[in-house]
């Protein structure tokens, strides 16, 4: 069942938001709330990825020797969930500071990791796991996908 045209629904919702804000102004700094939610999610992503590595009895150390190719848990949607979580922590920190300039740091972090550590790790994984690695890399995004 269609209520009405989507732009009209949007306008109606916007009017209700303004009314609610004026009648019951429950204010919160959204950048702090977003920063907190991102921080919790990022730490959770790192913890789940670490648990998956430990469960599969392989290294969590970036320069370590992998024993198994882990493709489950957070590794099923990102080949680098720990680095993704680290970037999330840096973005949440910028939100807590409420600083646009601090958002440069997560970008620099991602560039450094993307250009140095990830290629280094992927070479090791390809050498050790061959076709299994190639299949995983073809089906799972390096960051999010």
Automatic annotation (TrEMBL):
It is a multi-pass membrane protein. The keyword Membrane applies. It is found in: Endomembrane system. Coiled coil: none annotated. Its main location: membrane. GO terms for molecular function: transferase activity. This is Isoprenylcysteine carboxylmethyltransferase family protein. The lineage of its organism: Bacteria, Pseudomonadati, Pseudomonadota, Gammaproteobacteria, SAR86 cluster.
